[in-house]
Amino acid sequence: MDIKVPDKVKFILKTLNEEGYEAFIVGGCVRDMYRNTLPKDWDITTSAKPLEVKKLFKKTLDTGLQHGTVTVMLDGEGFEVTTYRLDGDYSDHRHPEEVTFTSDLVEDLKRRDFTINAMAYNETTGVVDCFNGLEDLKNGIIRCVGNPEDRFEEDALRMLRAIRFASQFDFVIEENTYKAIKRKAPNLQYISAERIKVEFDKILLSKHPKKLIDAYESGITKVVLPEFDEMMITRQENPNHIYNVGPHTICAIESLDYVLDNSDKIFDKDDILYNIKANEKDRLILKWTLLLHDVAKPLCKTMDDNNIAHFKMHDVVGCKKADEILQRLKSDNYTRNLAILLIKYHDYRFTNKMIPLRRALSKIGTDNIKYLFIIKICDVMAQNPDTHKEKFEDLRVSREKMKIIIDKADCLTVKSLNIKGNDIMNISGKNGREIGECLKFLLEKVIDNPEDNNYDKLEELTREYFKL
Ligand code: ATP
Ligand code: MG
User: Fold this and answer.
1) Which numbered atom of ligand 1 lies nearest the CA of 112?
2) Residue among 199, 183, 188 nearest 147 (CA)
3) 467: which DSSP letter?
4) Which residues neighbour 17 within 8 Å (Cβ) at sequence distance 6 or greater?
5) Which pLDDT score is estimated for 97?
């Protein structure tokens, strides 16, 4: 074990101990310590009651007193300290009706979801591992604490959490736990969209998003993302493809981290994608985009006389579906809008002629165009390898030409037209919406002919537009 308990956490444990209370780090941080990865947060569990905890530390926050949680603040850093507790009855598949404090650590560990998450540790006692969490951790197994059906009946979200931990650690779900998921998956309907979205985000950000296939096979996506089930059964009888829509989608998602993390090696120094940076939030948006880019293919599939499948309009229908899904999952507007924009254009053919390239750049924006290329590259990576060389080269040429447009600073927005709304009002005597429509018309013209972006020409075009 290379990870050390931080000094501040040690201080909290020691302070509680010296007053005669038991105190341990617990849950995810113990698991992560034994996996030799740095925990995101250090949770502490103690026999002290919340008010007793509060008395011992200078600064605390009442995070969830009724659930036993106090946040201890040390130099601006917060640590959650929670009293050993039992969860009461669950009647709604989500929340215990009441929680009761206990003086027995084992009771607290019993209420936790999986064996690997139900260990406690302190330096005096060492690890407390009543459910063989260490062995499951070593063997890569997600197993419920106690009877899996009962545990999923209590809180249905745990089923999606099982998939999430399997995706993060590349673990397998133990047989009885898996069977229980198959039986209890319908209970996920009682879980809020927000909690479901959090787990999906973590699955998408994980190294093994292919575990989504387990979520499909066990009946989870049928309840929380039924569109994915349709994707899983939609074949793509088309030379561009070797996978059904579902596995193609997973493969595209899996490609993203590879492309972003190796962008300094994959792309030339003068490529607009060279060393492209994407923080976690951007990555997540791109992964949602990839998850949903072909969501409408099942709806748009047709077969031609040669038994070749086509998916006309799946981009347009796809952005409507994606909008619906992301709203349903309570995604933030920024994510939703960017994902929809990228889905709309994911299959747009630049044809490598300047006008369609400028048009795309104008619609998508200079910042987002890089993301569109990344999406397109991941999409191709999940298509028939025989077609890769040609498609990648085509995209490379598009980027080269895009760069010329960007460098030349061609006019791509209404704002950068060399005529203003007021000028158009003066020329035409019109106002309101008609001015906006005229500006759009002028932008189209300038996109077709960048050299037309001068006042005299734009005035002439305005007169033409209003037939003056
Ligand atoms: P992460 O690294 O993503 O924070 P974590 O294991 O710490 O993973 P949290 O959601 O932060 O997960 O929860 C902390 C601990 O609380 C878990 O390790 C587990 O012991 C317990 N826990 C959390 N959610 C549940 C739940 N729905 N049912 C039972 N126990 C839970
Ligand atoms: Mg945690």
Assistant:
1) 30
2) 183
3) T
4) 23, 124
5) 75
Q: Looking at the domain that runs over 148-224, which CATH code has it been given?
A: 1.10.110.30
Q: The tokens of 240 are what?
A: 């561009």
- pLDDT bin (cut points 50, 70, 90) of residue 1 is confident
Pocket perturbation via mutation, ligand 1, pick of 117, 199, 205 by most ligand atoms within 8 A of CB: 117
Query: Is the CA virtual torsion 393, 295, 209, 248 positive or negative?
Result: negative
CA distance 242 to 292: 19
In DSSP terms, 141 is beta-bridged to 172
The architecture that CATH gives domain 7-131 is 2-Layer Sandwich (3.30)
pLDDT tens digit sequence for 356-411: 999 999 999 988 999 999 999 999 999 999 999 999 999 999 999 999 999 998 89
Atom 5 in ligand 1: which residue has the minimum CA distance? 28
The three-point CA angle 246-252-255 to 5° equals: 145
Nearest CA to ligand 1 atom 22: 112
Architecture of the domain whose range is 226-408: Orthogonal Bundle (1.10)
Q: How many helices (H) and strands (E) does the chain have?
A: 24, 13
Ligand 1 in reach of 112 Cβ (< 6 A): yes
Question: pTM score, two decimals?
Answer: 0.94
Residue 193 has pLDDT above 80, yes or no: yes
Find tokens 């200079």 and name the residue: 366
**Amino acid letter for position 348:** Y
Interval between CA 114 and ligand 2 midpoint (Å) = 13
Report how far ligand 1's centroid is from the alpha carbon of 144 (Å).
13
* Domain range summary for the chain, segments of one domain joined by +: 7-131, 148-224, 226-408, 414-465
Does residue 90 have a pLDDT over 80? no
